[in-house]
Amino acid sequence: xxxxxxxxxxxxxxxxxxVxxxxxxDVLxxxxxxAGLDAATLARLASGAKVARAPRGTRLFAQGDEALxxxxxxxxxxxxxxxxEDEGEDTxxxxxxxxxxxxxxxxxxxxxxxxxxxxxxxxxxxxxPRQALLDDLRASPDLALAMLGSxxxxxxxxxxxxxxxxxxSASQRLARYLLNLTTRRRGAVIVRLPHNKxxxxxxxxxxxxxxxxxxxxLRGVGVVVDGHNVAIADLVELGHYCHDGREVV
Length: 249
Description:
Layout: E1 15-17, H1 21-29, H2 39-46, E2 50-54, E3 59-61, E4 69-75, E5 77-82, E6 91-97, E7 101-102, H3 104-109, E8 116-119, E9 123-129, H4 130-139, H5 141-167, H6 170-179, E10 189-192, H7 197-204, H8 208-218, E11 223-226, E12 229-232, H9 235-241
Antiparallel strand pairs: 1-2, 2-9, 3-8, 4-7, 4-9, 5-6, 5-8, 10-12, 11-12
């Protein structure tokens, strides 16, 4: 599923905001990747960090750029996009929510980004310079283990997504996507689609016209779409439909 240029990142500049270093420490302590690290380690990590704000549509980095900083998303959502080198248009690969760090593998290896990153909403992001991160990893086994755990969880998520693409239908992947929009597990619920259908189609791994057919198929299990609102008659039934086992990744 590809997106038009107007649907992905724009060229808006993101501006750095000067924030007291102790505020950076507090921010990092609430990021899942760094939760549980001692104050001294967080202070070292935060010493060279910067907070940036960016409007919707801002291109944070492009596929092939050098990975100079670790991005930690504090507010908003970021889309990761990829394309065949010098061909075609960007395809949405992943949507990141607040609290996630990205793309750590490129930062740790010093390799170019395999994907580009763009703001899907107004965002606030903490940027940790690569060299400072590497120095802190050498000095702190706890930080190294935290990063290793984060990379392992991300790997498991990728494996889960590959399994879904290979083993489930478009309507089943859409059903799982809808289930992830609510914390409830039983009964009826109305969820609101957080993005336009072009982005949702790309996230599910289908073309927009296939997404419409997938929604039509879900009517048979009690899913009714009204604009951006989706009514689900029975969450348990929908879970059975997509064989949702809620694997912890």
